[in-house]
Design brief:
With about 325 residues, the chain is mostly helical. The protein has 2 domains: about 80 residues, Multidrug-efflux Transporter Regulator, Chain: A, Domain 2, CATH 1.10.1660.10; about 190 residues, no CATH class. It contains 15 helices and 3 strands. Strand 2 and strand 3 form a beta hairpin. It is flat, with a radius of gyration of 25 Å. Keywords: DNA-binding. This is MerR family transcriptional regulator. One of its GO terms (molecular function) is DNA-binding transcription factor activity. InterPro entries: DNA-bd_dom_put_sf (IPR009061), MerR-type_HTH_dom (IPR000551), MerR_fam (IPR047057).
Length: about 325
């Protein structure tokens, strides 16, 4: 269908259209087309001396694709990365399917609350009943979260893994204080999804295997959890700043950050770490990037909003590891 639509546009490849015409052809609006230009998602083929944006069939096709992806609820950043080839389309689709699954759970939870409130037939007391119902659900969710995390710790981490490090390695933060107050409907749905993951023996075996193989490579830090966590936080902030400034994986600032991160797991205190250790560590980290681990991270970013900035830096981190490995292979 889309190929046929594009072929029809190709017959007028040399023709140029004003922004109003483009909006009409695509069923969009002039402000929307202008906005996509301003954020760098859809640039016009030409801007006339009078300041008019002109578009060819190629830009119109790109706009139609953007509008289709937006209809499917893809975010602007995801669309940028898909069109640039930074995210494989099949991976982006899988992410979106998972996001929609959680949204469906969220809507089902909200519908259930409303239906229970309606059935209560409390008249003016309905709002109070609804409030108490949500409070009860949130309270239960907090208890469930504690149970699920304890189950993760006991099933994923081997006995030789020090208990004081488990929370740090699992989520990168102190999970005991992550969920406070009432959960949103989306968080409740994400908690359901997380529980499903750790009720799946195959997923538990996979994550436990990753932890065991990780322990074969790294030297557990010999400093306190608090000090190590502070260094991790500093490292994360530096990488987040680099990501926000659109630093590339091979840039000096990103590579220096990667080296500082790796040294926290080595048996040395100063840079640089040996090439052999870096290679073992990087290969282990890259090998552990399974679909289930990515799913786990995405669920956690919904359940724990404070982890969303971590998700932003995650891809840059692994790209930088991969780039450094490629350089070592050339030496």
């Amino acid at each position: 269908m889309y190929a046929n639509a594009r072929n029809r546009l190709d017959t007028t490849q040399n023709q140029k259209f004003f922004i109003g015409q483009v909006a009409k052809i695509t069923g969009s609006s002039v402000p929307t087309v202008r906005y996509y230009d301003e954020i760098g998602l859809l640039s016009p083929a030409e801007i006339t001396p009078g300041g008019h944006r002109m578009y060819t069939a190629e830009e119109i096709w790109r706009l139609k694709l953007i509008l289709t992806l937006r209809y499917l609820n893809f975010g602007i950043d995801e669309i940028k990365r898909m069109l640039a080839g930074d995210i494989p389309v099949d991976m982006a689709i899988e992410w979106q399917i998972e996001a929609l699954d959680i949204q469906m759970r969220t809507l089902a939870s909200m519908k259930s609350i409303l239906e229970q409130t309606k059935q209560n037939k409390g008249g003016n007391d309905s709002l109070s009943y609804m409030h108490e119902l949500i409070e009860s659900i949130s309270s239960d969710a907090l208890e469930r979260e504690k149970f699920i995390l304890e189950k993760m710790f006991s099933s994923v981490f081997p006995e030789q893994f020090p208990i004081e490090w488990r929370e740090i390695f699992l989520l990168g933060v102190n999970v005991s204080s992550l969920l406070e107050g009432k959960l949103s409907a989306a968080q409740t749905a994400a908690l359901d999804e997380l529980e499903e993951m750790f009720n799946d023996p195959q997923i538990v075996r996979e994550m436990k295997h990753d932890v065991m193989s990780f322990l074969e490579v790294v030297h557990l830090p010999k400093i306190s959890v608090e000090m190590w966590s502070a260094r991790m936080l500093t490292n994360h902030k530096q990488l987040l700043k680099a990501a926000e400034q659109h630093a590339t994986p091979d840039s000096p600032v990103v590579q220096e950050n990667i080296q500082e991160y790796v040294v926290m797991f080595a048996d040395v205190d100063e840079l640089p770490v040996s090439h052999s250790f870096f290679r073992r560590f990087a290969e282990r980290m890259l090998a552990s990037q399974s679909e289930n681990l990515e799913r786990f991270r995405r669920i956690c970013s919904i359940l724990y909003p404070s982890l969303q900035s971590y998700m932003k830096t995650n891809e840059l981190f692994y790209q930088a590891l991969q780039w450094k490995l490629q350089q070592l292979d050339k030496e």
